[in-house]
């Protein structure tokens, strides 16, 4: 018989089974609330647990990558589970952090390609303009300078967003001028706004907020970008700041009631949104993530084919 104590040095959960009962478990298993002399049903569950039980009783090996819920720690984790019938060992590798890193990389790549495309297009167009007409040098150079500054800002934002994804960014609360932040956002979205002849109507009742300037900028940019993207041409997007609230309202395609809860999910896009405009489906999920970190409330009200109102309630 092997020396079970050696499994205390493993970075995986190791369980010695006697049918469905836990006979031995290593030290790491304790952190997940796994104790000896109890059945596996009282420790965790996952969608294919019946198949695991079948394999245990029929003495067949079993392996699956799945999401597993651990009762004692009240958490769902991404795991790779392996059952070895000859040794009666159940090995569970927690790959949650690996998955988070993969997801952060994917999100970063998506955001980089999407966000940097517009300023690069402006630079490219102005370079052609310079080559064709020397009289427009000063105007073109100013446009290039603005685009370069915007790219620098985007790169900084993407770096912080990646840190947010990994839980490495701590909000920095200062008094911010919302009018100044709005000016930057509208400037960045100017091409999109002009392309659809959208009127931006601002009502700044509360000008100063105590918040993280970058996170507020990111919230506003995502919400206003969505409002413009899914508005009808020649319509109005209203922006109001009052009583520690930021309110963005559009007259666009709206969201069906049955889809309202799903629109903050990462990469989710409604069928109407897909038809209306291109996008990654990340905007509202980023806003929801920031609101969660800062303990803000996010409310979405919508009338299908009539428009959407998004309210962010900041801490007082």
UniProtKB/TrEMBL annotation:
Its EC number is 2.7.13.3. Keywords: Coiled coil, Kinase, Phosphoprotein, Transferase, Two-component regulatory system. The keyword Zinc does not apply. The keyword Iron-sulfur does not apply. Gene3D superfamilies: 1.10.287.130, Histidine kinase-like ATPase, C-terminal domain. Residues 111-316 form the Histidine kinase domain. Residues 134-161 form a coiled coil. Pfam families: HATPase_c, HisKA. It catalyses: ATP + protein L-histidine = ADP + protein N-phospho-L-histidine. It is an enzyme of class 2 (transferase). InterPro entries: BphY/WalK/GraS-like, HATPase_C_sf, HATPase_dom, His_kinase_dom, HisK_dim/P_dom, HisK_dim/P_sf, Sig_transdc_His_kin-like_C. GO terms for biological process: cellular response to phosphate starvation. It comes from the Bacteria. GO terms for cellular component: plasma membrane. GO terms for molecular function: phosphoprotein phosphatase activity; phosphorelay sensor kinase activity. This is histidine kinase.
């Amino acid at each position: 018989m092997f020396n079970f104590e050696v499994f205390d040095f493993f970075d995986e959960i190791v369980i010695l089974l006697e049918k469905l009962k836990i006979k031995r478990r290593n030290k790491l298993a304790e952190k997940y609330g796994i104790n000896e002399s109890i059945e596996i049903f009282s420790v965790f569950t996952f969608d294919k647990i019946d198949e695991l039980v079948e394999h245990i009783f029929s003495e067949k090996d079993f392996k699956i990558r799945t999401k597993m819920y651990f009762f004692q720690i009240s958490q769902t984790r991404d795991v790779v589970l392996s059952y070895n019938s000859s040794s009666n060992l159940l090995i569970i590798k927690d790959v949650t952090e690996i998955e988070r890193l993969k997801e952060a990389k994917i999100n970063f790549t998506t955001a980089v390609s999407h966000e940097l495309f517009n300023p690069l297009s402006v630079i490219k167009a102005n370079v052609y303009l310079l080559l064709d007409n020397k009289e427009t040098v000063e105007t073109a150079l100013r446009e290039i300078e603005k685009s370069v500054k915007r790219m620098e800002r985007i790169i900084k934002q993407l770096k912080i967003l990646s840190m947010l994804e990994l839980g490495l960014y701590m909000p920095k609360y200062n008094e911010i001028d919302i009018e100044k932040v709005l000016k930057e956002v509208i400037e960045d979205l100017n091409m999109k706004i002009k392309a659809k002849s959208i009127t931006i109507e601002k009502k700044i009742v509360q000008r100063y907020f105590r918040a993280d300037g970058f996170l507020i900028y990111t919230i506003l940019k995502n919400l206003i970008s969505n409002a413009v993207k899914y508005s009808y041409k020649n319509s109005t997007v209203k922006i109001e700041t009052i009583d520690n609230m930021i309110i963005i309202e559009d007259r666009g395609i709206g969201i069906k009631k049955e889809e309202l809860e799903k629109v903050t999910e990462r990469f989710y896009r409604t069928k109407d949104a897909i038809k209306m405009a291109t996008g990654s489906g990340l905007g509202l999920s980023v806003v929801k993530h920031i609101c969660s970190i800062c303990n803000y409330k996010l409310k979405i009200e919508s009338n299908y084919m009539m428009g959407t109102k998004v309210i962010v309630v900041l801490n007082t």
